[in-house]
Amino acid sequence: MSNLDREAAPSLCGGRGFVVAEPVRELLSPRRVKLGESTEVRRLLPNLGRRMIGAWAFVDQYGPDDIADEPGMQVPPHPHMGLQTVSWLHEGEVLHRDSTGSLQTIRPRELGLMTSGRAISHSEESPKSHGRFLHGAQLWVALPDSDRYADPKFEHHPELPKVTAPGFDATVILGNLDGTASPGTTYTPIVGADISLAAGAETRLPLVPDFEYGVLSMSGEVHVDGVPVLPGSMLYLGCGRTELPLRAASDAGIMLLGGEPFAEELIMWWNFVGRTQEEIEQAREDWMTGTRFGEVKGYDGGPLAAPTLPSTPLKPRGRTR
């Protein structure tokens, strides 16, 4: 998914100097962003107060939207570099195309994982014949310097491992949760899990104390370490936890995001993650001149134009504002 803001501002991310090294309860409110004609997303990362959680650098949550009489998601071809995209659905379908030749319909609880490496372009759209509702999240994972020039690739994992208990069902999207590992390719110590809780369920989720964590609410009401987290909001939890108390006030769905704090300082501008202003400038020029990022074939429409770069210098900084 693209950052479609026409006035794209740089996000200065990464570095361990701003990691909260102890448990906290920091509730993040979303910024509402239009994505095409009929989809509005709630942007949780980057946030005014929090830029990253582990290597997770971008989180959009959307829906449930009634798109029965609407085109639904329509994101034209656009570029990425230096990151992975994670497409995750609770309802609906998204048709993915990219410049490696991938063509894949992604359905609920299936992992669509695109690794941009040095350069890739892709489009995302609701199929012409689609279900009534669209509900999901789009997330980006920053690639470390050692892997950000790799060849681009796309993975589709329709079956993912689960961790279950009475009233609790967790699908492991990326990384490892309680000894259960996702087949998705990762480049840093990380975890992403989709968790369903039955009304009244209480559990204590095992965590890695060296990771920092956040919980994104998708539906219902769940109390995370005593804090009610409602749909479209995220609770940042810091580091230093060995377990996380969860209690569902209703049937609820959440996403657990975590990872080892990302050591490198980054610049994230539009759909690019880099380390220097020169990298970002070159990536924008390459996209606008039709080089390096390849071609997305089969999409009915032209590619997105890149926004104008800001007049102020882009400098890599820390994880918080």
TrEMBL record:
Residues 303-315 have a biased composition (Low complexity). Belongs to the pirin family. Binds 1 Fe cation per subunit. Residues 41-141 form the Pirin N-terminal domain. Pfam families: Pirin (PF02678), Pirin_C (PF05726). One of its GO terms (molecular function) is metal ion binding. It comes from Streptomyces aurantiacus JA 4570. Residues 298-321 are annotated as: Disordered. Its cofactor is Fe cation. Fe cation binds at residues 78, 80, 122, 124. InterPro entries: Pirin, Pirin_C_dom, Pirin_N_dom, RmlC-like_jellyroll, RmlC_Cupin_sf. This is Putative quercetin 2,3-dioxygenase. Residues 193-291 form the Pirin C-terminal domain. Keywords: Dioxygenase, Iron, Metal-binding, Oxidoreductase.
